Amino acid sequence: MTATPPPASPGADEVSKLHGGALQQGTGARASTKATAAGTAGGSGLGSGSGPAALPDFSGMDLQEAQDTAQSVGFYVLDDQDASGQGRLQIMDRNWTVCSQDPAPGTYATDTAVTLYAVKDTETC
């Protein structure tokens, strides 16, 4: 009897194809997972249209609160970056404060990628 090797794990291209190409580049799998999970759960987010919605000003908000707020108004393609320029990952989102965002507050299609720039709560913007 000949043993059959297990199937190879899908690479990023295959996973992207499985999710309709919805994976986004960002700080890593976390941003991608948020985007694809939102697009497949409950029919909201990616794939459900890109109608306009008001993107609030997240400056001064807790990073987790800003992400929750963005999703509550329809924006699911989210990324977060270290505003200090040190390239740190935001592991505990509640320990970070948003300094700025791209794009600026305004009305955008809900499939617009939103990047939140944050520093640790003990630091200043």
Walkthrough of the structure:
The chain is α+β, with helices and mostly antiparallel strands. It has one domain. It is 23% helix and 22% strand. The protein is built from three helices and five strands, in the order H-H-E-H-E-E-E-E. The protein has helices at 12-18, 29-40, 63-72; strands at 52-55, 78-82, 96-102, 106-109, 114-120. The strands form two sheets. The chain has a three-stranded mixed sheet with strand order 2-5-3. The protein has a two-stranded antiparallel ribbon with strand order 1-4. The longest helix has 12 residues, at 29-40. The protein is elongated, with a radius of gyration of 17 Å. The model is unreliable at 9-47 (pLDDT under 50).
Question: Which terms would index this structure?
Answer:
PASTA domain-containing protein; single chain; 125 residues; 22% strand; alpha+beta; PASTA_dom
Question: What's the structural blueprint in terms of helices and strands?
Answer:
Layout: H1 12-18, H2 29-40, E1 52-55, H3 63-72, E2 78-82, E3 96-102, E4 106-109, E5 114-120
Parallel strand pairs: 2-5
Antiparallel strand pairs: 1-4, 3-5
- The total count of strands amounts to 5
- From the alpha carbons, calculate the radius of gyration and give it in angstroms: 17 Å
In which order are the strands of the major sheet placed?
2-5-3
What fraction of the residues are assigned to beta strands by DSSP?
A: 15-25%
| Broad shape | elongated
User: How many structural domains does the protein architecture include?
Assistant: 1
Largest sheet: 3 strands, mixed
Overall pLDDT metric: 75
Number of helices: 3
InterPro entries: PASTA_dom
Organism: Streptomyces pyxinae
Protein name: PASTA domain-containing protein
Pfam family, one: PASTA
